[in-house]
Amino acid sequence: MSKTHPFEGLLVVDFTHVLAGPACSYYLGLLGADVIKVESVTKGDAIRHRGGTDADAARAGMSTSYLTQGAGKRSIALDLESPAGLNQFHELLARADILVENHVPETMRRLQVDEAILAVRHPHLIHCAMTGYGRGGPQENTAGYDVNLQAACGLMEATGTQESGPLRTGAPVLDYGTALAAGFAVSAALYERASTGQGTFIDVSMLETGLTLMSSSVTDYLKTGNAPERRGNLANSRSPGAGSFPCMEGVMSLGVNEESHFESLAKALDREDWMSDARFSQRDARKKHAAELSAEITAELGKRTAKEWEPVLQSAGVPSARLRSMPEALESEQIRRRGFVQSTDDGVDVPTLPFRLGGAGAYCPSSKAPVIGEHSVEIEEWLGSA
Fold this sequence. Notes:
The protein has helices at residues 20-30, 55-59, 64-68, 83-95, 105-110, 115-121, 146-153, 173-196, 206-213, 215-224, 259-268, 283-288, 290-301, 306-315, 326-330, 333-338, 376-384, and strands spanning 11-15, 34-39, 73-77, 98-101, 126-131, 200-205, 241-246, 251-256, 320-322, 341-343, 349-351. The chain is an alpha/beta fold and 386 residues long. The protein has a six-stranded parallel beta sheet with strand order 3-2-1-4-5-6, with helices on both faces. A three-stranded antiparallel beta sheet has the order 7-8-9. Strands 10-11 form a two-stranded antiparallel sheet. The model has no long low-confidence stretch (mean pLDDT 96).
């Protein structure tokens, strides 16, 4: 079991809400950790009641956004503003290995569970805090959602076209990117604790996660002073053969960045004459004649559909893929064979992890997503048995 579930035996206290925090603890749970979700007595995690297109589920406190990262956890309802609730929270932390939370620092201080207090009271604990802007600086207590941080880090400004203006990405990439970054940090902290015996505090910034996702653009700007511009579907490589091209039906995304890629593309399209064409035979020439090359590629791809071109180009070694909708991607044989989507024990299909350890087949949540406080009695009895 430990080969594919390395966190088996670890206890995670999940004091999170919305997407980034719950996703982090969900990933830890998929890898074997026992995750106890601490929710407010009144309404629980706010994301239970919003997100997704299933309004009935949201009204029932089981929105699809909540279900996405709620499975495999146990839920206890606590009032941390009461002495009894706060005491039970500390009892949980005394037994826990990891605390995952995503509240602004002033909230944690008000509840008397900030990193300074917990480091003294629970020195073994790995305390992972995710916030919009990270600790320190004038914005450490500024609340923010994914859409706000996409605006703040420059990702929106770099997305879209000159005509469209700045655009948010089509998915909350900073929420899930932050969750993965936090999981990476927790793994590093666990490794460190194995040798020191001491827990640590982890400070994860959504703003810096966004900048990390744009790392190559950050470096380019810092070195040259050239800020990234909205380039639509053109690749960051700025190669004339990298971007999106319409076909007779559908669109092909090409990543023709290397000389070998261009040679493969020319052969696959039966245009080996490009290799002796002074406009296209060398990289520098292709950049000078990028519009002409793009027009010729588009003309060739327009002779067949994207579905027809994809296997031809991929088998020829051309980095390429046809544009798919998310439903089409989920229905692909590649995703099915990898087992990325798994069903909880109540029949809800959910995404899992994008990696496998030690030849593991797939990671499946150990149980369905709980209702608020579903396991309160069970957990309280367990705490009382110590």
